[in-house]
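Table 4 source record.
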Amino acid sequence: MAALQAILGERLKRLRLDGRAMKEAVLMFFEIREDKGFSRSPSTSELLDWLRALAAEKLDVDRPLGQQPGALRAAAGALFKTREDIDRARALRSSAAQAGVPSSSVN
């Protein structure tokens, strides 16, 4: 994780990475990466692209990521490469919301 933080800091110098939403996005990335239900795990390069895409969508870094579904939808293509994976991520996020699980715990 420390190595990844160094990469993020070096490659995303212009982005504010210390906000709640960005921290939740990185945690989500690791959860997605470990989930064997996706057709392919996202790479570190895709994480960088996703964080850039979230920032381009005017993500409010101080608000919880789960409260910004528009940014999540718009940036999903940077992290997921198949329609099935995007649909799976949305279903997981929806199930978590219905169960009362914080939306930062799943994508």
